[in-house]
Amino acid sequence: MADTERRTAFKRQVASLFLFLCVWAIGSGTVRYSVPEEMESGSFVANVGKDIGLDLKGLSARRARIVTEDGSQYFQLNGNTGDLFIKEKVDREILCGQIDPCTVQFEIILENPLQSYRTEVRVCDVNDHSPVFLESELQFKIPETTPPGSRFPLESAQDLDVGNYSLQNYSISTNAHFRVYTSEHSDGRKYAELVLDKALDREHQPEVSLLLTAVDGGSPPRSGTAQILVIVLDANDNLPVFSQTIYKAQVLENSPKDYLVVTVSATDLDEGNYGEISYSFSQKS
């Protein structure tokens, strides 16, 4: 007896599932709405009953309800009035990441007769994130002999927003040597390069400090910054220079060997091995 009841229940479930799948396929069209992300729970979205052409009596009698594939409950339908509300605040970035458009899909089911209305709610982005650099300070070591026009890739800032609210451009603080170039790759992301416009001179400026700014397309825009420190590496580009162009000295003819005649001095603006000086005569005298 128990086995017979279980088989009967299983057949009913299969029949119900088949009927539901058929309704899914032949439903009465798609109803579409859009809402901004982060709307508070209880916020009104639309009157679904009016949009699908049902009066209040029909909605109540046919037990209108929402069915989702994954069991999520972002929206709530009032079966008596047909009003659709936000049930759970939707964070577009958590729901869809960088996918745009971001949509929540569900079915509105009506009974007697059984009907299904596929419903899509587009969750629109709001500019609630600023561009952020993973590193607050970027450091480059660049030889002073580097030719103008040389480029150095910069770390990209991250912005969780999409579309116009995503990262749009980079800029750097005013300086005498560098500019920033922003390019867009095939994936739509913006990338920046540091471009050397004017040759560096370590002896004149051993370090260059810059402020890199990433800006999105919001109004007003949001931005994030990172410090750039350029350490200029030395090159052997300076000659030793004597303190005098001519040194004069007098020596007595009977002066002993190793007698101090004159002291000379030279300096070199380069550093390290490039700045070390040794002295010698060009020929024996």
UniProtKB/TrEMBL annotation:
It is a single-pass membrane protein. Keywords: Calcium, Cell adhesion, Glycoprotein, Membrane, Repeat, Transmembrane, Transmembrane helix. The keyword Repeat applies. GO terms for cellular component: plasma membrane. InterPro entries: Cadherin-like_dom (IPR002126), Cadherin-like_sf (IPR015919), Cadherin_CS (IPR020894), Cadherin_N (IPR013164), Protocadherin/Cadherin-CA (IPR050174). The keyword Membrane applies. Residues 27-133, 134-242 form the Cadherin domain. GO terms for biological process: homophilic cell adhesion via plasma membrane adhesion molecules. SMART domains: CA (SM00112). One of its GO terms (molecular function) is calcium ion binding. It is found in: Membrane. CDD domains: Cadherin_repeat (cd11304). This is Protocadherin beta 1.
